[in-house]
Amino acid sequence: MVGAGAWGTALALAAERAGRKITLWAREPEVVEGVAMRRRNPFLQNHLIPGAIKVTNDLAQALKGTQLVVLVVPSQYLRAMAREVEALLPADVPVVICAKGIEGDSGKLMTQVIADEMPGRPQAILSGPSFADEVAEGQPTAVTIASEDVGATHETAMASLAARVALSFSSPVFRPYLSDDPLGVEVGGAVKNVLAIACGIAAGRGFGSNPRAALITRGLAEIKRLAQALGGRRETVTGLAGIGDLTLTCSSEQSRNFSFGKALGAGMTPDEALAGKKSVAEGAVNAKSVTALAARLGVDMPICQAVYAVIYGGVEVDAAMKALLTRPIKAESRELEGLISLPNPANYDEPETEIPA
Ligand SMILES: NC(=O)C1=CN([C@@H]2O[C@H](COP(=O)(O)OP(=O)(O)OC[C@H]3O[C@@H](n4cnc5c(N)ncnc54)[C@H](O)[C@@H]3O)[C@@H](O)[C@H]2O)C=CC1
Ligand SMILES: O=C(CO)COP(=O)(O)O
Fold first, then answer.
1. Which of 25, 48, 199, 218 is buried deepest, with most CB atoms within 10 A?
2. 5 is in an annotated binding site
3. Smallest CA separation from ligand 2 atom 6, residue
4. Which keywords accompany this UniProt record (predicted)?
5. Is the pLDDT of residue 154 over 80?
């Protein structure tokens, strides 16, 4: 397990429950010390880590003899980490990507980053509605595991990397589903973080259930559009890694992205809301990469754009909301999307904020 933040640690516990032998690689000496001496990780403090899980900050030692590498560092660090791992790992050992994000500078998906840095290496992606704390606690959880080699037949699916990874984690409390659409799976994971910030903002602003339901539903339409533009399938977005993770993170204060948004909605600046946080709110970084990618592909993602405007454009929450709500009136269905655009009579004044139609 390369990365011993909250999620790497919870996945180590899940795999240990599934009977695997785990070595956890941690970047921070205090994490190694905490796990080795007290069986506690400061990133996931409430859970005892069984002695059978080894911990080290020596990457070569962690990778020695391993049959599967699970990469669980945040998306902005995945490229550098993959480069380090590649130099130490035999070519046939597969990797599983668990980061949820789109790379800042390049706009690349995590699978593309791995293809760049680990060319030819078999890769799968694990995503879905799964708070680390609840997985660590052994609460029932279902995730999606996707790899390109799942194929269309029983035989190819059974022999696929996704199936092998699923067996590595499967236990009576952790249920993986297989997918052959890694792209659709990862777009869901990356964009839901930005949308969770939007829902947090609405909650922090004092709004209730209606705005949240609207943001989740129209946010899902944004995920579908981006996934499809990149070659993923709309159908994948209705699965665990799409609507599943979106509903989870958009409706719980356990979500770091939702909580970050909530602080913004309550009036904090982005810097104030992130101050002193050791753990990641990936959506804060990804608001930039998601909107840049959408603009490059010509994909309409007004909610993500509004989140970007609040975090990076200094736009007030109320102005961003008004701009979103008073855009031209559109059709809801896919068939009519793009055909209808009525001037909105609710737009009494010139919009103060540029949000794409
Ligand atoms: N925590 C959760 O419930 C879940 C998290 N994820 C995803 O897993 C990924 C990892 O998140 P968490 O484990 O929650 O992170 P975390 O917020 O618990 O910990 C931060 C992690 O970042 C690492 N880090 C900090 N600076 C670094 C650097 N320069 N290079 C490499 N690593 C560095 C730390 O070592 C630590 O592992 C993220 O992409 C997140 O979206 C996915 C599902 C659930
Ligand atoms: O991805 C997650 C659960 O599936 C964790 O969400 P947060 O990063 O918002 O806490």
1. 199
2. yes
3. 255
4. Cytoplasm, Lipid biosynthesis, Lipid metabolism, NAD, NADP, Nucleotide-binding, Oxidoreductase, Phospholipid biosynthesis, Phospholipid metabolism
5. yes
* Exposure string for 114-134, b = 16+ CB within 10 A, e = fewer: beebbeebbbbbbbbbbbbeb
Q: Is 98 in the pocket of ligand 1 (CB under 6 A)?
A: yes
Residue 330 lies in a domain: no
Looking at the predicted complex, does its ipTM rise above 0.95? yes
Q: Looking at ligand 1, which residue's alpha carbon is closest to its atom 28? A: 77
Encode pLDDT of 221-274 as tens digits: 999 999 999 999 989 999 999 999 999 999 999 999 999 999 999 999 999 999
CB distance 1 to 151 below 8 Å = no
pLDDT higher than 80, residue 187:
yes
Task: Check whether 257 is labelled as a binding-site residue.
Answer: yes
Q: Give residue 82's domain range.
A: 6-180
CATH number at residue 122: 3.40.50.720
Please tell me whether residues 267 and 171 are part of one structural domain: no
Query: Residue 346's pLDDT band (boundaries 50, 70, 90)?
Result: confident
- Shared domain for 175 and 33, answered yes or no, is yes
Distance of CA 43 to the CA centre of its chain: 18
Ligand positioned closest to the Cα atom of 196: 2
As annotated, the active-site residues are 192
User: Do 123 and 146 belong together in one domain?
Assistant: yes
Same structural domain, 121 and 204: no
Residue nearest to atom 35 of ligand 1 (CA): 27
Task: Give me the pLDDT at residue 228, please.
Answer: 96
Question: If you measure from the C-alpha of residue 246 to the centroid of ligand 2, how many angstroms do you get, rounded to a whole number?
Answer: 9
Ligand 1: centre distance to CA 119 (Å): 24
